[in-house]
Every structure is written in structure tokens, then in C-alpha cells.
Amino acid sequence: MKTIGIITYDYPHLKTEQVMLNLLKKYEPAQLKMFALPFTPRKERNIQISHRPNQANSVHPRSMADAHGIPYTPVAFDHEIESGLDYYVILGAGILSERFVKDKKVFNCHPGVIPAVRGLDAFKWSILEMQPLGVSLHFIDEQVDAGEIISILPTNVYPTDTIETLSRRHYENEIAIMSDFEYHLHHPVNIFSSIATGEPHRRMDAATEATMIEKFEEYKAKMSYRANK
Asked: Coil, helix or strand for 139?
């Protein structure tokens, strides 16, 4: 019986809630263990578009673990996480140490097409740089969004999309691929295997975000889904 380590924050976290509910449809609670790292709230930023739902609008992961009989272990550092599990799934964490990821199968989802769009605010940078939109399931290594790619799922763009509808669909794509991480391990797909490598990005500043918003209609015209294109 495979054992899966769920790595999250010791704090209410929507992505954790959503993926955990899906995993419980596929695995027995006895196969799951939750490890919770400290969470430091980020300083409020001046943004025009919030491209992800409020992650704090969720139940606490300990509450879910207790309800389903899943072991829940708060840890101060990632090297305190139990070794020897078959898989580890990152649902909430900062940059993990090389010591932790070495010799482990640690799955992560990056909300951009690796290696073209790496780093933070990948959704927004994809639009600004006219890059395809997709979510990348990959193994974690010591580099930023550069581990072995398992699968990349494109996010469809439609002519009537707003940034809000597109960002919602993109986020749902992220939840879906993380929930099916083991399926993708055995059935990998990546239509972007020849895409050029880009530099890792920091958070998008307000001025650059305004430019991104101005480019959205152009982005839709270029990237809108067409069957058999």
C-alpha cells in the first residue's frame, strides 16, 4: 500500500482543502500523512488583479486530518518531515531544502509552463510575455521550478474570457493535476516539450501588472482555443 506525505502550511489553506478532498476519493486515509510547516502571512500588496482565490478562506488542515483520521504533524523545518514514504505532494510550502528533496519523489505543481515561465506570478507573466498558459506537474529539486517535468496541462483560453474567468479556469487546472499526480506519473503528457527556457520571475509590480492588463485582449486573440489548431 503506497503512503503519501501531504506537505502544507499549519494554517487554513484552500488548495490543501480542495486537493485533499479529491485525494480522499482515490486513497484510504491510512495511506495519507500530513506535515504542516509554519506559515508567515505576506505583507499586503498593491495589485489590480487577484488571480488566485483567497487561500485563507478554508478550514484548517488539522481539522480535515482529525476528521478523516489522518496523522497530522506540525514541523518547524522540512528536514523534520518523516522519510521513507512513497510520494510527497507539495500543497503549501516555501522553497524546500536540498537535504529534504534528495532521494525523494516530491511532486509540485507550478502554475506556468516550465521552463518558459518560472518563478512567481506565472499566470500574469504568461500573459505579459505572450506565452502559452498551462500548469506543470514536476518533481522538486534544488533549482527554482526546474525539476523533472512529469506532465503539463494547457489552460484553454476563449475569446470571451476575462482575466477573472481565465484565472479561475487556470487555478482549477492546478487543483486537477495535483489531485491526479499518480495518474500523470504513469501517463505523462507535455505538448510544450520544445518550448524555450525563460528566466525565473519575481512578483509582478503594479506598473508591469497594468501593462499586462492592457495586453490581455491581444493575448486572447493570439492564444484563444481552436479545435484541431
From this structure: strand
Half-sphere exposure of 46 (CA within 13 A, CB side): 5
Domains and CATH numbers, the chain: 4-223 (3.40.50.12230)
Section 118-131 average pLDDT? 95
Cell of residue 27, nine digits: 486513497
> Which residues have a Cβ under 8 Å from the Cβ of 20 and sit 6 or more positions away?
6, 61, 64, 91
pLDDT band at 199 (very low <50, low <70, confident <90, very high): confident
Q: Give the whole-angstrom CA distance, residue 110 versus residue 116.
A: 11
pLDDT (tens digit, 9 = 90+) per residue, 8-42?
999 999 999 999 999 999 999 999 999 999 998 77
Q: How many CB atoms lie within 10 A of CB 194?
A: 6
Q: How far apart are CA 103 and CA 56, in angstroms?
A: 32
Say how far apart CA 34 and CA 81 lie, in whole Å.
9
Which band of pLDDT confidence, cut at 50, 70 and 90, is reported for residue 45?
confident
